[in-house]
Amino acid sequence: MTKHVLVTGGAGYVGAHACKALKQAGFIPVCFDNFNTGWREAVKFGPLAEGDLLDRARLDEVFAQYKPIAVMHFAALSLVGESMTNPSKYWRTNVMAALNLIEAANDAGCDKFVFSSTCATYGDQDGVVLDEMTQQRPINAYGGSKRAIEDMLRDFGASHGLKSVIFRYFNVAGADPDGEIGEQHVPETHLIPLMLDAIAGKRAALTVFGSDYDTEDGTCVRDYVHVSDLVDAHVLGLNWLLDDKPSDVFCLGTGNGFSVREVISQSNSVTNREVPIIEGERRAGDAAVLVSGSVKAKELLGWQPKRAELSTMIADAWRWHQAPDYKA
Ligand code: UDP
User: Fold this and answer.
1) Which of 202, 252, 260, 314 to mutate to test the pocket of ligand 1 (most atoms within 8 A of CB)?
2) How much distance in Å is there from the Cα of 191 to the middle of ligand 1?
3) What would the pLDDT profile of 56-76 be if each residue is shown by its tens digit?
4) What is the value of pTM for the model shown?
């Protein structure tokens, strides 16, 4: 049996780590990427199928060439702030592209789908611990676009027998512990990489987006999960589907919330330097608290995060920031 898995966005941050984990687990990850935000250097764990998800003919070609046993779908735009100012970009790039991909997979007879969704589908829920049963009420177009794709997967499951595992990520952080790949976005908008760039003197300072939230220190609280642990869950999710288990949804987080100020303080300790900060306004679309229940993936998939400490995530990211392949 062919062990090809089509990995959309395989040249991006989470997708590239997934390709590495798939290769280590004995699969052949086929990286499908248009390099709008991905990095060619990150494609090193399997073949590259360059293309755009909105190009249905190209997708059909790739399905015919590799006959993947499953799809892992990472390719997406994922910036909360940008999704608030340019929602059409999110509905087109995320939702229309996903429909194309799901239809192409379905027509090619590829009926297993692992999907990268997000805790941004929950919206702002007054600090409740979010789990798979929590009602989704997105407050930004990014979260809305991901929820729409979840709905699509469920509809194709009911009508065509498509089997899916949906992962709702909390805040992905860290980098490959071997230092081969890591996070780099242009422009960078995420807290930990921006903070490390400020520590390294590549940026003047880190702006704290809002200090008047209803949290202990007034800054937003997030649940950070190591990218290597996250992709381990994806391999477990893929095997779950290959074992003919039913479609399901899993939250991926550690269950521990850290405020922006706590992340800053841990970064100062890990790097032994001080992040220069500026107090700023709230960023539109940000929920005050997003923390996962984080039990189901452990119980059903047997997921065991190995790098669950925030300090480990920051240390791995810091090592990557000093690697030759990292470009700020
Ligand atoms: N954040 C911040 N300054 C920045 C970037 C992010 O204070 O320059 C805050 C942001 O408001 C959020 C948290 O850090 O509360 C994590 O944001 P990030 O963009 O990393 O991830 P998101 O939660 O949007 O997925």
Assistant:
1) 260
2) 5
3) 999 999 999 999 999 999 999
4) 0.96
